[in-house]
């Protein structure tokens, strides 16, 4: 394939999402220290009945084989395999009546992660990209948006362009030899990159354009990060005391949440923690309670330690935590002991910065649909925006100039869980 300079730049511009554009995103409230978001994404669809919305009075085919116990928060039954979270639920906001109609993984993920239903003509940006775009600051050292170990589909920059997308750390933070690849300076690597860039620019004599300038922003950002020892230290789990690492659990989710805390503490605006393997169409009781480690135990250790650390390090007013997935799962077990996709009811957990603890909404006796206070995913998205100090009513501009509201359907934040 022959690729001249103009073709290269045309394809690069398309991949990066077009030209930069401005929007009023930051809320007009009084200025305060920037808040960070840690989004723990349980990829595949967390069963609300088997976690935060237990139905011990329901029939066996609804409640399943896992026991739900009453916790300190009145009227809430939490899985006995989540004792740490149950003991800390009074620090959290539990949304029990989230509901929507998108039972497909891709469509449900797009709705939750971007605040919009999928569009055939536009891929919307995830909240981390929106925040990175709002903050700007090309001279920052740490990335504005980090994914551990990687980003789910639709957790990217969408039409905002790759410059606002997540920095994926890769690998498994739970491994003893975990390290972010190519994070340290590479000796003559800078010279090789500069030589390649110059060669591309000299393919013809056309003036520099926006695609080239965007490319140079990537290179400059990577160089700042790799040459700053304090920034690199934020990615170093070995800097944590052994007892802290043990509290989080020596597994991927636990160490990912510890790394997320270190990055948020260092000033990263959004950390996306992706935990896969929650799509349990068969044998859900065993899938959640067996393994190395079991899914529920890993979640309990990781989230309990994270909430404790936010309090211990006085970060509760700086770091917002959200635990969510694309939908819930069928309250009734299927013939092979699993639960299938169920967007009509699910739970979301919030804690930390900007959040007032409490329980909002409830599902019916079988966990099939909201019995009170239905909550749309767009309202959850608007709540996260508001808690972070972003304006849900702000408008972005797509590459072709189309106005796009940050969150669809004129959704409003859930005021019951927002601190004044």
Nutshell version of this structure?
It contains 13 helices and 16 strands. The protein has 420 residues and is of the alpha/beta class.
Could you explain how this protein is built, in words?
By secondary structure, the protein is an alpha/beta fold. It has two domains: 347 residues, 3-Layer(aba) Sandwich (Alkaline Phosphatase, subunit A); 41 residues. It has 13 helices and 16 strands. The longest helix is centred in the last third of the chain and has 18 residues. The N terminus is likely disordered.
Quick one: biggest sheet? 8 strands, mixed
Envelope shape: globular
Classified by CATH, the class of the largest domain is: Alpha Beta
> Order of SSEs, N→C?
HEHEEHEHHEEHHHHHEHHEEEEEEEHEE
| Second rung of CATH, namely the architecture of the largest domain | 3-Layer(aba) Sandwich
Keywords:
single chain, 420 residues, alpha/beta, Alkaline Phosphatase, subunit A, 2 domains, eight-stranded mixed β-sheet, two-stranded antiparallel sheet, 31% helix, globular, disordered N terminus
Element layout with pairings:
Layout: H1 5-16, E1 36-42, H2 60-63, E2 68-70, E3 77-79, H3 83-87, E4 92-98, H4 105-114, H5 127-135, E5 145-148, E6 167-168, H6 189-201, H7 210-226, H8 229-233, H9 242-248, H10 252-266, E7 270-275, H11 284-289, H12 295-312, E8 319-324, E9 328-329, E10 341-342, E11 346-352, E12 358-360, E13 362-363, E14 370-372, H13 377-387, E15 395-397, E16 403-405
Parallel strand pairs: 1-7, 1-8, 4-12, 5-6, 5-7
Antiparallel strand pairs: 2-3, 4-11, 8-11, 9-10, 13-14, 15-16
């Amino acid at each position: 394939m022959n690729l001249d300079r103009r073709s290269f730049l045309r394809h690069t511009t398309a991949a990066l999402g077009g030209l930069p554009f401005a929007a009023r995103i930051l809320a007009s409230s009084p200025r305060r220290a920037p808040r960070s978001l840690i989004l723990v994404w349980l990829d595949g669809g967390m069963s609300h009945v088997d976690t935060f919305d237990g139905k011990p009075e329901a029939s066996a085919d609804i409640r399943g084989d896992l026991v739900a116990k009453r916790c300190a928060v009145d009227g809430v039954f939490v899985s006995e395999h989540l004792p740490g979270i149950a003991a800390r639920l009074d620090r959290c906001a539990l949304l029990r009546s989230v509901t929507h109609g998108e039972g497909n993984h891709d469509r449900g993920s797009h709705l939750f992660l971007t605040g919009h239903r999928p569009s055939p003509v536009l891929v919307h940006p995830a909240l981390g990209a929106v925040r990175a775009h709002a903050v700007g600051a090309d001279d920052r050292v740490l990335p504005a948006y980090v994914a551990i170990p990687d980003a789910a589909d639709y957790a990217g920059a969408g039409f905002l362009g790759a410059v606002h997308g997540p920095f994926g750390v890769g690998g498994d933070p739970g491994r003893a030899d975990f390290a972010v690849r190519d994070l340290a300076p590479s000796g003559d690597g800078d010279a090789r990159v500069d030589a390649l860039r110059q060669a591309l620019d000299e393919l013809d004599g056309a003036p520099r354009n926006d695609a080239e300038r965007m490319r140079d922003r990537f290179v400059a950002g990577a160089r700042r990060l790799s040459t700053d020892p304090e920034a690199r230290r934020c990615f170093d789990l070995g800097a944590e005391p052994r007892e802290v690492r043990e509290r989080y659990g020596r597994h991927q989710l636990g160490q990912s949440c510890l790394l997320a805390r270190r990055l948020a503490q260092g000033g990263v605006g959004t950390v996306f923690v992706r935990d896969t393997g929650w799509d349990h169409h068969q044998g859900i009781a065993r899938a959640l309670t067996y393994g190395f480690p079991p899914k529920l135990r890993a979640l309990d250790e990781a989230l309990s330690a994270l909430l404790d650390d936010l309090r211990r390090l006085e970060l509760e007013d700086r770091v917002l935590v959200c635990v969510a997935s694309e939908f819930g799962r069928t309250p009734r077990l299927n013939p092979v002991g699993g639960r299938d996709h169920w967007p009509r009811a699910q739970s979301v957990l919030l804690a930390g910065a900007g959040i007032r603890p409490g329980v909002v909404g409830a599902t019916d006796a079988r966990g099939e649909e909201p019995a009170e206070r239905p909550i749309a995913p767009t309202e959850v998205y608007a709540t996260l925006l508001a808690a972070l100090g972003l304006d849900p009513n702000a408008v972005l501009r797509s590459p072709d100039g189309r106005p796009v509201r940050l969150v669809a359907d004129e959704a409003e934040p859930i005021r019951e869980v927002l601190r004044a």
